[in-house]
From TrEMBL:
Residues 1173-1182 have a biased composition (Polar residues). It comes from Tetrahymena thermophila (strain SB210). The keyword Repeat applies. This is TBC1 domain family member 31. Its main location: cytoplasm.
């Protein structure tokens, strides 16, 4: 039955339990799809196989992927130690890659076909690989092969190692399942599942207590490993599923499966309850999954190749909550919880060998019909209890079963030609051996076997003989069926005679007969018994020692027929026990091959009336090897000769045996043989030719050895348990140590990441500072370049002015020279111009004044130029200082802007967080609204549906009940009416009969009675008739009363129906009121939601306004502060500049006034000197025709003097 809330799985779980979604398209180079995925237990890597067989490894730590293209398409993946990835390829090779870089490290080329399973056990560090023909166990550290199991009767289907590393589970294609002990590779349990089940999948629980098998069948097969014998129970898959695509235990007892309808189910294997049913959204389908047991995350591969990661624990919790909510609504638990239905499969044990073993130096044992190889012989005691149980079950057959089993042994002699013993001997002499297909019939005829089924059934029912419980130790047999038949026949022989159960030689003698005639156990039993009675009647006389009389008689025959050989043997101290008993102890089974041994037995059975023949054949066998025996000098050489199988001609030996029998005198035969055959048809003849005391002593000794071995095995079992417990403790400690190392390693990795991030951050910061420094240096270089350009331009201007001045000076010098020449020329006429001297003096004074003014102007220009240069240099210095200040202000401004940006970023971040918080709140509120509306709608719909269904159901029920009741009432009424009518009719008939009878009587006695008596008699008859009529009417009235009561009941039921209808109407009214109440609740809730939204939006708006206002205020204040500082600094600079200019102007004016005063004084002095010492012409020549530099020097000297 499907879960009623299945439709809510996808949306709810997809939104809330999804951890990550891996887009595989960016990892795949082609347009392929992912078909298989596997996760690293440490959650460092995720590996996937696409449909082309290529591998993609996703490295989560570095957020990158590695592509691997193997030589052959990959089929299986598994992570082993230290991030190594093991890959099984389609050609059977196994490759190991480094998951971090995809480097190939090693390749195992062992299998020749595609692997069916690849598994790694972290506890034992072993790798399991399974192909069709073999199953191999590897050491994961050295990749050395530990053990290989080869398939025999059927091919392997799948297999798995138990998590504790103690057992191996293998499944074959014919349905057989085996559980192996990995300590000694014994089969500890066995059972079977559905035969020829394809695509078998197997998974073992984490506690190694159970395993589950699934495949192309509609059933899951559960098995508890701890129970013995192994019992498998089947359970049907969920509805709509016909096969299992993958199966794996998730955690604890929870089993995860993917069915053919591409749905993931999590099943509690202890209760068979479906704990989780999961589908991907948009009906994508699930093709594969893998579960990380450390963090309980499940990787799911969709049908289109996408990989989804879900929190499995959250899925379980949500499913439980959903189920609890459904239960709280009053829904029945049978509709909420889905449980797997038990299957109707019946599984019986089979005893067939499916596996051959490859091993050296190990003993072969049989456990559960399987051949086992073990190192320690003491481990063979483990299967005693199981072996005894199987043999007891096998041997306790009822009589009719035995008759059916051995019906084929009852050969119809009439259907075969009548062959006498003489003809058989002639046939044997001609062909030397009997045909295999007629040997059973011939032996039966020669030995005259009774085929006593009753006696044999009695021996079988006695069960397994104690000494044959561990027969596999003494006589290992690989074929399980032959081994069981051997145990059965030997147990019957031992139950018949204790000697046969205590003699080891008898087992070797009986084995070939069991192998030949094992299909007909009764025939084999009686042939062995006849052989023991007739041929071996003196074989066990000295048991448990060799039969000395028999051996001595054979030695005497050898001495008589070949004294040279006998003398050589005695000369080298070879006793007859040394060279006769080794061949005779197993009755030549180790010395002859199968054909030769059968030929020998054919002769012995044919000539069973001459039982001493085997002594002469034994003597002939020894004499046959005369030449090699004559070369032997020591017992070691003799043992080597006996141990190897020497080539022999049985025909020659048999002919020699008959020849020795003929020519040996009777007095040389002192061992007496008697004719015992044929066996009795009522009860078998007792075998008494042995020492009973020795047999009893041997049995007692064997029991003591068995008890000692049992005690030793028990002590070893305890030691193994202690060792196992110690190993578990060590493994726990190792796991704890590895866990601590992993934690330390992860902490180290985390610290390295933190240091790496800090270094990266510091590097980025240093690069940023370096770029800022470079920018500032570039700006300073630009300023210096501009300053140099300005200075160079000023220097060029100054150089131009100097050039102009030099040119002017040269011109002036030329003019002065010319004037001097003119003066010389004019000196002569100066006297002639006396009249014009005053005027000329005035003109010269005027010119001198102008020259002085020009010179003053020039001086002032030079001084002004110097002052301007100094001012320019000072201004340039101020500009540099202003530039530095501006740079400082820019730096401070940038710092302030960075702080502002950081503050704005923080504000934006807070604003974004507030928006995200608001979005999340709105989203959660919307989700709550949607969920609440959906729940209310579901509740309303469910209640409406339930009410409608209930009303329809009640209506139908009432109609059916009404119809049924009316029908029953009608039938009852008709029945009662008919019954009443029948009864009334019967009573009327009786009354009529009575009346007729009375009338007849009246008529008879009419003549005898008087008229009065007639009258009286007539009155009595009428009164009786009236009485009977009254009784009939009374019964009719009673029936009518019953009918009335039935009608009243009908009326009451109608009234109840009307009341029920009124209750239904009232219920509908209540439902409508509830719907109205729910509508009011919805409106109130919607109103509250809108109000909350409005309040949230209002708070958000206020928060944004406050944030913007504060940000604007702070930025405005900072800008105002910066502007005020800049204005203040500019005002200070302007004031300082104005003050400096005023100071310079004042100093310049003072210097100009001083210069004017000095020039005035100098001019006055010069004029006085001229008037006293020189003439005006000379004064003019001395004062007006001097170089400007001389005039300046003179003025400077005069200034110094003053």
């Amino acid at each position: 039955m499907n879960n009623i809330h299945t439709s809510t799985h996808v949306s709810t779980y997809f939104n809330e339990a999804l951890v990550d979604r891996i887009d595989t398209q960016k990892y795949l180079k082609s347009n392929g799809k992912i078909k298989k995925v596997v996760s690293d237990p440490d959650n460092h890597y995720t590996a996937a196989i696409d449909d082309s067989g290529n591998i993609t490894v996703i490295v989560h730590k570095l957020n990158r992927f590695v592509s691997i293209k193997p030589s052959s398409p990959a089929t299986h993946l598994v992570f082993i130690r230290n991030g190594n990835l093991l890959v099984a390829q389609q050609n059977g090779h196994i490759s190991q890659y480094l998951a971090s870089n995809g480097k190939l490290t090693s390749v195992i080329k062992h299998h020749n076909s595609k692997l069916l399973a690849l598994e790694y056990n972290p506890v034992t560090k072993q790798i399991l690989t399974i192909a069709n023909d073999q199953c191999t166990l590897w050491d994961a550290q050295s990749f050395n092969k530990i053990k290989t199991l080869f398939a025999k009767a059927s091919y392997f289907a799948t297999g798995s190692l138990t998590p504790n590393g103690q057992s191996l589970i293998t499944s074959f294609q014919d349905g057989n399942v085996y559980v192996w002990n990995l300590n000694n590779f014994e089969v500890t349990a066995k059972s079977e599942v559905e035969e020829n089940m394809k695509n078998q999948k197997i998974s073992v629980s984490a506690d190694s207590s159970r395993f589950v098998i699934g495949g192309s069948t509609a059933y899951l097969y559960y098995c508890d490993i701890s129970h013995s014998p192994l019992c498998i129970s089947s359970f049907a898959l969920p509805s709509g599923s016909t096969s299992v695509k993958k199966i794996k235990f998730t955690h604890g007892n929870y089993l995860g499966i993917i069915t053919d309808n591409q749905v993931f189910y999590a099943i509690d294997s202890s209760t068979n309850q479906i704990a989780l049913e999961f589908r991907l959204p948009k009906n994508k389908g699930i093709t594969d999954f893998d579960i990380n047991p450390n963090n309980l995350e499940i990787l799911i591969v969709s049908g289109n190749g996408e990989i989804f990661k879900y929190d499995l624990q959250k899925l379980f919790i949500m499913e439980m909550n959903q189920q609890q909510r459904l239960l709280e609504r009053g829904i029945e638990s049978s509709l909420v919880y889905n449980v797997l239905k038990p299957g109707n499969q019946n599984h019986s044990l089979k005893f067939e060998s499916h596996v051959d073993f490859v091993s050296h130096g190990k003993e072969n044992v049989i456990i559960n019909g399987e051949s086992k190889l073990v190192n320690d012989p003491d481990d063979l005691m483990k299967a005693n209890t199981q072996r005894e149980t199987n043999i007891i079950q096998l041997c306790t057959f009822p009589k009719h079963t035995l008759e059916k089993m051995f019906k084929s042994a009852l050969i119809n002699v009439n259907s075969l030609p009548n062959m006498s013993v003489h003809k058989l001997r002639q046939f044997l002499q001609k062909h030397k051996v009997y045909p295999d297909k007629h040997r059973a019939f011939i032996y039966k005829q020669l030995l005259e076997l009774p085929l006593n089924v009753d006696n044999f059934a009695t021996l079988v029912q006695k069960g397994l003989y104690p000494s044959f419980k561990d027969l596999y130790r003494k006589y290992p047999i690989s074929d399980s069926k032959l081994y069981q038949k051997m145990q059965t026949i030997l147990s019957c022989l031992a139950n018949f005679c204790d000697l046969f159960g205590e003699s080891d030689q008898f087992i070797q003698i009986a084995f070939p007969f069991v192998k030949l005639f094992g299909q007909e156990e009764l025939l084999a039993f009686e042939i062995v018994l006849c052989f023991a009675h007739q041929i071996l009647q003196n074989y066990f006389v000295d048991f448990p020692h060799p039969p000395l009389d028999l051996l001595q008689n054979i030695d005497e025959i050898i001495k008589y027929n070949d004294p040279i050989l006998h003398q050589h043997l005695k000369q080298h101290n070879f006793k007859f026990v040394d060279y006769i008993w080794p061949f005779l102890s197993g009755f030549f089974t180790s010395a002859l091959d199968k054909e030769s041994w059968l030929q020998l037995i054919d002769y012995l059975i044919t000539y069973n009336d001459t039982p001493e023949l085997f002594m002469f054949i034994t003597a002939a066998f020894i004499i046959y090897f005369k030449h090699p025996l004559m070369k032997l000098k020591s017992k070691d050489e003799l043992e080597i000769f006996i141990s190897r199988q020497n080539p022999v001609s049985v025909n020659h030996i048999i002919e020699s045996g008959f020849s020795l029998l003929k020519r040996t005198p009777i007095d040389k035969i002192f061992v007496k043989f008697s004719k015992i055959l044929p066996l009795s048809k009522t009860s078998y003849n007792q075998f008494t030719n042995y020492n009973v005391f020795n047999v009893a002593h041997s049995r007692l000794t064997r029991q003591q050895e068995t008890e000692a071995e049992a005690k030793l095995e028990e002590s070893k079992h305890k030691i193994r348990q202690m060792q196992s417990l110690t190993d578990q403790i060590l493994s726990v400690e190792q796991r704890y140590k590895e866990k601590q190392e992993n934690l330390i390693r992860s902490e180290q990795i985390r610290r390295e990441e933190v240091i790496y991030n800090a270094e990266q951050k510091l590097s980025r910061q240093m690069k940023l500072e370096e770029s800022i420094k470079q920018t500032r240096l570039q700006q300073l270089n630009k300023i210096q370049t501009l300053t140099r350009a300005n200075l160079q331009a000023q220097e060029e201007l100054r150089q131009k002015e100097l050039d102009l001045l030099e040119a002017e000076l040269q011109y002036q010098q030329q003019a002065d020279g010319q004037q001097m020449q003119n003066r010389k020329e004019e000196i002569q006429i100066l006297e002639m111009e006396a009249q014009a001297a005053a005027r000329l003096r005035q003109v010269m004074e005027l010119r001198e004044k102008e020259d002085r003014q020009r010179m003053v102007r020039m001086d002032m220009d030079i001084h002004r130029q110097q002052e301007e240069d100094r001012d320019n240099a000072l201004i340039q210095q101020w500009r540099v200082e202003d530039t530095e200040m501006r740079l400082r202000r820019e730096t401070l401004k940038q710092k302030k802007l960075q702080d502002l940006y950081k503050y704005e970023e923080e504000n934006e971040k807070k604003l974004i967080e507030a928006k995200m918080l608001e979005t999340e709140i709105l989203k959660e509120q919307q989700m709550r609204d949607i969920e609440r509306e959906r729940k209310l709608r579901q509740i309303a719909e469910q209640e409406l549906d339930q009410n409608e269904r209930y009303a329809e159901y009640v209506k139908q029920l009432e109609q059916e009940q009404l119809k049924t009741q009316i029908h029953k009432l009608q039938e009852t009424l008709n029945h009662h009416r008919q019954k009443a009518l029948n009864f009334s009719q019967a009573r009327l008939n009786q009354a009529e009969e009575e009346k007729n009878r009375l009338l007849n009587e009246i008529q008879i006695h009419k003549n005898m009675l008087s008229a009065k008596q007639k009258t009286l008699q007539t009155g009595e008859i009428e009164s009786q008739i009236a009485q009977k009529r009254r009784e009939a009417e009374q019964s009719i009235i009673e029936h009518e009363k019953k009918l009335q009561s039935i009608l009243l009941d009908i009326e009451n039921e109608k009234r109840l129906m009307y009341e029920l209808q009124s209750q239904i109407l009232q219920r509908e009214k209540d439902i409508k009121e509830q719907e109205g109440f729910y509508d009011v609740l919805k409106e109130n809730e919607q109103r509250a939601i809108n109000e909350n939204r409005y309040q949230t939006a209002l708070q958000q708006q206020r928060f944004e306004e406050d944030l913007n206002r504060q940000t604007m205020q702070k930025s405005y204040q900072q800008q105002q502060r910066l502007q005020e500082q800049m204005q203040l600094r500019e005002q200070q600079l302007i004031q300082e500049t104005d003050q400096m200019r005023e100071t310079i102007q004042q100093e310049n004016m003072k210097r100009l006034e001083e210069a004017v005063n000095n020039n005035t004084l100098l001019r006055n002095t010069n004029s006085n000197n001229q008037s006293q010492d020189y003439s005006p012409a000379n004064n003019f020549q001395r004062n007006h025709y001097k170089m400007p530099s001389e005039i300046n020097e003179e003025e400077g000297e005069q200034d110094e003097e003053q």
